[in-house]
Every structure is written in structure tokens, then in C-alpha cells.
Sequence to fold (285 residues):
Amino acid sequence: MVNVSEGRDGTVLASLAEVCGTCLLDMHSDWHHHRSVFTLAGTSPSVEMAVRDLAHCAVRLLDLRHHAGVHPRLGTLDVVPWVALDGWPLRDMPGEPGRQRAITARDGFARWAAGELGLPVFLYGPERSLPQLRKQAWKTLTPDFGPPAPHPVAGAVAVGCRPLMVAYNLWMAEADLGRARTVAATIRSASVRALAFRLGNDVQVSCNLVAPFGVGPDVVWDRVAGMMPVARAELVGLVPGTVLDGIPEDRWAELDLSRERTIEARLVRQRQAQVNAQVSGLPTK
Fold:
């Protein structure tokens, strides 16, 4: 899930999506956050090249000096996480092989982004969490790769390795930001990261479910709804199929979930697109 600091210009977003090729499983954009999440997946080296193409395009087309959005950000190419997956349905690749595979992909991209794009790169994963990185960057933390000062146009980038995660937003029925902040603080834990934002006339509790197989969208909805009325839910990107299987199907619509929005379903579609491209003689990345 590559996070880019652009969520409003449709022409630019189309250009960013195009360079990802068939590795792009999903793109989610938000006007208020002024941010887009690109979910890419595939085998090596195709997915590595697609992420590099997306990074190069983002640095070329975007300018952090003219960016204004509610979401915290380090740069135009803001966050590039690497996740090693295994099995079907998908799960995190277990043990040391999975950890090393993700670290190798992370560090390879970090060195490339520093050398090719001139970006200061901050690492997260085993060393520190992404929230810790955001708090410490340019204060007590210097870049792990690249120049010692922000890129004049693109800022910096956080490059990490992590397990499977689900990004999930809940829109409140009442526009009470103070109350929403209390809710976000209450549900925050080792399994859930949460912040509250005012988005126009509405209020949102924005969550990263970092242990979604144990604490999924249904659990978070119920916890929040027990403290403050929820108007609607918003899945950002995709969800692992096993997470969906653990939730009663009659709740999927309320929770903004569906079988078509699983990583597995999009990978099946991706494979068919790659086969079609090969038949047509087109590049598949």
C-alpha cells in the first residue's frame, strides 16, 4: 500500500495508476486527506519495478510545497511499505524467511530512492514503528539513506516492512471532534492505531488495523459504536480473505466489505489481466 500525497487531481492520479501496470490491485483516493493509497502486488522483480515507476512518477509530478491535507505526511511519496505474503488464502510469510524477504525488498527500494530520486529515506519496521518515525523524523531521527535535508519539492519518504494490515475509517454520525478524539484514544492499542480528523463538516476516526486477524473491522466498528454513533464505514484499499471469512456475511455491507475487495480476488483478476496482456503482446511489468 504505497501512500502518495495526492488525492484531488484526477489527471495526475490516472498517470500514477497507469505506470503501475498490472501490479496495481487497487487505488483509493481521499480529497480531504489529499492522499491516495495504491495497493500493488506481484512476484519479483515485477512488483519492485512497478513501485519504482510509481515513485519516480510521484516525485516528478507532485510538489509538497503546494500540498494541504489533514493527514500527516513526510513527502509526496510518503510511505512505501513492503509485506512478504505466503499461502492461499494469503497470510504473512512466517518466521525469519518472511522477515528477511521484506527487509531485503525494503532496503533495496530505500537505497534506490535515495540514489535515483535524491530522497531522504527513513526506515521503519523492526527498528521503529511508523508513528514513532513520524514523531521523530527531522527531530531526533536523521535519514537512514539519502541526503541529510528534505528534498526541496518531494520532502522525504518512509520506507518500511510490516505484516498484513487493514486501513479502515469510520465516519461519525455526530460532528464532535473532541468526542471522536476520545474514542480514537480509547480504541488505540497494540492492534489498532487510530486518529480523529475533521473532514469538512464531518468527523472521522481513521484506523490502521495492524493485527486484523485478531481485531478486524467488525470489532473496531462495535467498539467505536459503543461510545459514539457511527454513520458509515470506509475500507481503504483491500482486506485479506481470511479477515472477511471471520465476519458474518450479513454485516459485510454495513462494514463496507465484499468478496470482490479482498486481496485474493484482485490477484485472480490481476493474473487474468497479465494473461490477456501476454496474449495481446503487451508489457505486463
